Here is the input.
Amino acid sequence: MIHFIIRRILIAIPTLLAISFIIFAILDFAPNDPTGNLPMTVPPEVREKIRQSLGLDQPMHIRFGMWLHQFFVNEPLNALDKVFGIKIGDAEDRTRVISWATRSPVVDLIIERTPQTLWVVGLSYLFGILIAIPIGIISAYKQYSMFDQIGTFVAMVGFSVPTFFTGMVAIIIFSVQLEWFPMIYDTTLVVDSWNHFVKQVKQMIMPVTVLALYNASQLSRFMRASILDNLNLDYVRTARAKGRSENVVLLIHVLRNSLIPVVTLIALGIPTIFSGAIITEQIFRVNGLGQLLVIAIEGADIPLVQTLTFIFAVLIVAFNLVADVVYGILDPRIRYD
Here is the structure.
């Protein structure tokens, strides 16, 4: 297992470098100009000086090399300095990845927005998993029962209806008519008392529920199909012939093998937590990473878009590795060496 992990990490390094270059090249060739939002009265020579100050007068390969050095060397050194107090080199001469729009370090902007995304999108994904797995198991075990039919109907509705529609319906019913929950998510709220904690929970209920319903709908159908594929296999009949109870057969033998494909879906969905729910964050005004990415794209903030997109790629590669490791834990027959 250790050799497999090391081998995968060594393969992931050139893969991520290639991905970073492709992302950089696509964004560089895109018809985006950071001076495009400036007033028309700004003279061309001033626009050119602004482009030079952003480093756009340099060739693409030089700018790409500078970004690699800033992201992989300067940013980790800056993190060691701030978090652990370990100073390596001169911090004042250390250039960082700077946002063109705000002139702030990109990593600081991402760290600032990450808690909001994790609270809303992360909790919705966790609740979606906790809801989907038992519903999928019961639906498969009681196939074509009333529970299965209701679960199938709710799952199809939850997966088919877009989140912007369910979000707007939730706002109209629970915010406008019933006035139970706030319409807009207040990201400036500081939880330092019980009343503020209650406000935080109330403003999280609608966006978390909307996203959890969407995630649970997909996972529950996948879980049901995986359970049904294993229920009629030979090892299940053998376990029943040995006198094992139905709970033992279902929860130990069938569930363990059925979770293998579901783990892939769950692991590949975890990076979407950090990318944020762009539509839902826009509806409920959650200042998360999804909204940050939209603002960066609209403002042609290439360093911010480049860094966010690359971080998402790193997370996808990392959780692919996590899924492969979990396979070996769930099924000892899987060998990597």
The chain has a mean pLDDT of 78. The chain has 13 helices and no strands.
